[in-house]
UniProtKB/TrEMBL annotation:
Taxonomy of the source species: Bacteria, Pseudomonadati, Bacteroidota, Bacteroidia, Bacteroidales
Pfam families per UniProt: OEP
Main location as per UniProt: membrane
Repeat listed as a keyword: no
An MF annotation (GO) of this entry: porin activity
UniProt organism field: Xylanibacter ruminicola (Prevotella ruminicola)
GO cellular component: cell outer membrane; efflux pump complex
Protein name: Outer membrane protein TolC
Source superkingdom: Bacteria
Gene3D superfamilies attached to this UniProt entry: Outer membrane efflux proteins (OEP) (1.20.1600.10)
Entries under InterPro entries matching the protein: OMP_efflux (IPR003423), TolC-like (IPR051906)
UniProt keywords, alphabetically: Cell outer membrane, Membrane, Signal, Transmembrane, Transmembrane beta strand, Transport
Amino acid sequence: MKYLSKHLSILLLLLPITAAAQPYTLDQCRELALKRNRTLQSARLDMSKADEDKRKAFTAYFPEVSGMGAAFWADDYMIQMGQTAMLKNGRMATLSATQPLFAGGQIVNANRLAKVQQEVSALKYHLTENEVLQRVTETYWQIFSLQANLTTLDSSDRLLAELLRMTNSYVRAGVRLPADTLRLQLRRQELESNRLSIDNALRLCQMSLANMMGIDWQRFSIVDTTFAQPADPVTAFIPADDAATQRSEYLLQERAVDASRLQLRMERGKLLPTLGVGVNGIYANLMEKNETHGILYATLSVPISAWWGGSHAIRKARYNRQQAELALQDTRQNLRLDIEHAWNSLVESYRQIDVARRNVISAQENLRQNQSYYRNGTTTINDLLDAENQLLQSQNRLTSALATYQVRLADYGRKVK
């Protein structure tokens, strides 16, 4: 017995201790997501790659340096002049450096294009950041809504338990039928089924949000939140025309126009001559004698055959530029519509809160009256349960309206900044 108790004690000590779940506010969730979200980490790596491309493009301004060395050993002399044999082994090395002076603007424009790509990478990161934060916000308020639904279910279940005790006393007194008791029990079982569905959805939402934050979902919860009447959204209003041109999507399309113009210049530059100067140093030891030589040279290359197809490449690049400019205009209009839609949705959700509050007040009064009628025997259990269900649904709609408003407020803020 002592042996068994000893091993049980050791086993209990080895069992993992589950830490209490830490409650997070929405701001804390967003802050952790910015630090630990893997999608954002990947986007930051894309920015780093764009930085390296920019540095790589800058190296094209530097001279092109190359070196070569060679040595050989022959089994016999390779040159025979009369009675003299020469060149059985030897060594040689060359070092050259070429500095481009003019390359048709291709180096300059390639560096400008790399800078544009660097800006594009930063704008894409900003877009990804906004999308991640919006998903965090949506999931956070979804968790809030589900938890509030569970609280509402608890309230309804307590009401049904009280009605069941009252109905049982009425049945024993002979003023109510046993079917009323069964009807109440069925309703409580229906609520229990709903609870299981909500618990499952809540667990999935917690896992999703914790994954976005890079933490363990089993130690995650949100801070209990209570709402007063939200502020009028008019305080957050920004004209759509002003906001559209500040959106990252619009700025990205502007960079696409810039890139198309630079690519057109590069196509033109491919048809221009290239000029460079260089120096070449030679060391040789071929006949048991060290020799060194230096050479200065200039190169001029004219791409004559490239002119045949180059004009078509230029026209194609010009078409690409025109398409990018048209897409910029289209993007501005689409963003303006998107902002208008986000604003209308925000105003609608604000008004829905007031409607939902009035529905709750009406449903509470309806339930109160039906409870009174049921006690007096002037209404049926079905009417009473309908009133209870209407209150439950109205409270859930109010919760949903409050959460939807917060999500749409964040979405509107994302689209005008």
